[in-house]
Each structure stands twice: as C-alpha cells, then as structure tokens.
Amino acid sequence: MAIVKVIPSKINPLTRLPHGSLHKRRVAAYARVSTEQEEQANSYEAQVDYYTNFINSHPEWEKVNIYTDKGISGTNLKHRDGFNKMIEDARAGLIDLIITKSVSRFARNTLDTISLTRELKSKGVEIFFEEQNVYTFDSNGELMLTILASMAQEESRNISENVKWGKKKKAKDGYVQLGYSRFMGYDKHQDPKIALKVNEEQAEVIRFIYSEFLKGKGYNLICRELETKNIKTPSGKDKWQVSTIKSILSNEKYKGDAEMQKTFIPNFLDHMPVKNNGEQEKIYIEDHHEPIINKEHWQLVQKEIRRREGDSGYSSNNEFCCKIICGECGGFYGKKIWHSTDKYRKEVYQCCRKFRNKNKTTICKTPTFTAEEIKNRFVIAYNKFIEDKTAVVDDCKEMMMILDDSKSIEEEISNLTMRANDIVVLVENLVERNSTEPIDQTEFQRRYNELDEEHSFIIKRIEELSSEIESKKAQAICLESFIKDLDNMPGVIDEFDDNLWSTLIDKAIVNKDGTIKFIFMNGREIID
C-alpha cells in the first residue's frame, strides 16, 4: 500500500518569506489622490504617513520607498510618474511586496490592473490590496482582483459621467469654466457666474494682435513683433507660435460671448479630449462678460481669416492686405522684386499665380502695378465714393434691413427640422416592425436607406441655411461698423491713407484692360 507524505510549504504564511530566511522582505507602498483640493491633500499626507508607520511596525519588513502621485487620475498610467517608477523598480528586482489601500488606488482600468499584477507575479513581486484584504499570490487572488478591478473601472465611469453632467449643467446655467493661467486678456472674476474680468495690460496685447492682423500682417510677422516687444505668450513663454495667434483671433470670448463644450472626452480611460464637431451638444452664451474686441471688429477678423485661407497665394509681405485680386484667376496680388541686385531694383505688385510653372507660361494677362500706382487709384476711387455721405449711409441702412430679414430662411429651417423629426420616428417604427413582424429584408433595407438618405440631405440643408443666416448677420454687423467709421472719415483726400484702405475696401479687382474695380464694404463698386 502506497505511503502518502505531506511536505509542508517552505513559505511562512505571516511573513510570506521562506522559513528561516535571514533577509527581510523588501516592501514598498503606493499612495495616490486624484485632485489637488485641500481635503484631498490632507488625505495624501495621511496616506504617506500611515504606510511609513505601517511598514516600520513589521520587523520582518524593510521599507524600500513610499511611491506617490498627487492630483493624478487612476484611469490612465501615462502621467503617473510615481506609479511608473515603482513598477520600474519592481521589474528591476528591488521590491518583494507592494502595499496599496485599494484596487481603485492602484488603477481604475481593469486591463492595466490584471496585466501588471500578472507581470509582477511572474517576477516574484506580490501586491497587497489592504481594503479588500487581497494578496495576489493567493490561489483565489486573481479572481477576486478581476472582479474588484471591474468594479473600480465601472465606478470611474460613473464618476466621469457625473462630472460631465455637472459641467454641462453649469454651462446651461450660464457658468463658464476657463483655464485662467493660460488665457490672455482676462482674470478670474469674484462672481463665479461672470467668471471673466478684463486684465487691461493683457487686453492691450489682444487688441494689438487684432489690429495688426486687420492691417494685413500675417501670423508669423505678428509673432515676431510680439517677441521683439518682449511680450510673453499666454503660457508665459518667450517664443510665440502661429497656432496661438490663430486661437486668439478666432476665440469668441474676446467679443464677450462664451461657447462651452468645444471638446469632449469620448473615452474616460485615456482622458484624451477631441474636438466637438457636433457629436455632442454645445452651449453658446451671448454677451456673457465684458468684451475686449467689439463684435464688429471680431466679425471683420473672421472674414479676413476666411479670405486668407481661401487662397494659398496670400503673403503677409503685402501692404494691401490681400485685398487686390486678379480678375482672371481670382488669385491675390503679391509683392515682387525686379532687379533685386542692381540699380534698376523695383518693387511691383502682380498676380501670385501669373507664372505658375517652370516654363513661365503666362496664365493671367492682368497688368503689374507699383505701390504708388495702386495708392493713386485708391485716392481717386475714395474721393468719388465720399462725395455724398448721406446717400452712402442710406444705402448701407437699406442693405442692413435686407440682411436682417431672415424670416423665410428660419421658416424653411423650422419645416425641415419637423420633417427630420418625423423621419426619426418613421425609422424607429420601421426597425420595431422588423424586429416583431416578418418583413422582406430587401424591402426593409431599401426603405431604411431612403429614409436615411433623406434625413442626411435635410441635416445638410439645415446646416447650409444656418450658415447663410450667420453670414447675413456678419455682413450686417460689418455694415453697421462701416457706418460708424464713415462718420469719422475725412472728405476729399490728397494722399493714400492705409487706415481708410483697411477700413473701407472689401476688395479691389484688377481687370486685364488695366482698370481696377474697387468694392467698398457697403457693396458699392467704383471702377477707376
């Protein structure tokens, strides 16, 4: 008969070291809080103090380190420097046991928790989750850990959803959240609902950027001028970036409005924000705070941005603000240097697309002008334009009334919206019938595709009509600004004035017969 013997484990269940082991177990602890609030900071200090005393109270343990992360979320390992250093040391064989308060302190991502504990287990490193009393070397440790990690991840998802809901609710109530330390022009207002208070020193920089842009200067040139003036960026750096200038010029907060929910986080695990292109609702608050740039000038800047983006031939090295356009190809006129290295050097303006290929085959037959010729032509056109200010103002006001009347467009949008809602109901009914009744699948798919195509067409049409209304409003605002500026305009002028040029001229079209059609901001055309 076989004799059965039990060979006892060599591991001491209390110390989790081999019986009779002479060396102590190397122990580390991990502490983390996810916000920088004062009560959380106290929790953070308490955790560090607790684990230091806890490890020192075990004579069979030797403290390696207390690894910490402060103000960091647990859903992603990317920015948790303390955690990553601890894992790195564990992989290097410097740690035998890691102690942490709970699974959620370690990680709220189930996949990260399981993969890391398995990896460390294979290297002889155990983790003890104190709150759940789970040791990863126990036979049922991984099963319990999987369940607990899933619960921690779900808890994190719920927290994320609650935070999103809270932010959206605040936005709908008129509260604006802003990173003041990196936003130039405003400080935090003592009234949380107003939120923004103009910082006059910084506001002057914002006004300078808008003014220089309307004078025709490009993003890079504005960056260099700000650096020359030793003006710091919104984040306190010396070097300005084009993206920063573009952001300032297009930010609605500088005209006193506030758009919320510009970005959203689709995945709570990686916390990566993406641009909201209509996937989620946005909240727009008009006249929320004191503006730095009036609405008329802000709209002019947006129009100028669109103008420059519409032609790759634009160059900021052009004192005529990319307003001179070739009548043949639609390209901008740019400055060219003839005979740059000899005594016949001459600066001229010509279509930037005039010589497009290496063989210099002429595409446009529009003429070349010197700056002086363009200026003289503008002086003549301006003097014709300003002959009767009253008539000009009356024309502008009549045009503004036409632009402000969007009733027919709004009615069409309303009708289209009702039809779009009806289609949604029809699709829902169709899908419901398909799930409960025997329907020919070919016919079901055909009908579904028809409704989907019609709905997509309607949504696109609504967007086009909404854009048309916004465009008409922008034109009306520009005309209103034009009328205000006109009151301060001089009568007949003898020489070119760059402020008059940038304020009054929408564009100047050069014809191949050498004439220039000056189109003023109110739509009036004068050919010289």
Give the key terms.
14% strand; 46% helix; 528 residues; 14 helices; elongated
What is the fold's blueprint, element by element?
Blueprint: E1 25-33, H1 38-56, E2 61-70, H2 81-91, E3 97-100, H3 103-106, H4 110-122, E4 126-129, E5 134-135, H5 141-172, E6 186-188, E7 196-198, H6 200-214, H7 219-228, H8 242-250, E8 258-260, E9 263-264, E10 274-275, E11 283-285, H9 295-309, E12 324-326, E13 333-338, E14 346-351, H10 371-385, H11 389-404, H12 407-436, H13 441-487, H14 498-504, E15 505-510, E16 516-520, E17 525-527
Parallel strand pairs: 1-2, 1-3, 3-4, 12-15
Antiparallel strand pairs: 4-5, 6-7, 8-11, 9-10, 13-14, 15-16, 16-17
Sheet-strand content, in percent, reads: 5-15%
* Assembly type: single chain
Number of strands: 17
Contiguous helical run count: 14
Can you give the mean pLDDT?
78
What is the overall shape? elongated
What does this structure look like?
- With 528 residues, the chain is of the alpha/beta class.
- It is built from 14 helices and 17 strands.
- It has a 5-stranded mixed sheet with strand order 2-1-3-4-5, with helices on both faces. Strands 12-15-16-17 form a 4-stranded mixed sheet. A two-stranded antiparallel sheet has the order 6-7.
- A hairpin with a 5-residue loop joins strand 15 and strand 16.
- The chain is elongated and about 120 Å long.
- 25% of the residues are buried.
- The model has no long low-confidence stretch (mean pLDDT 78).
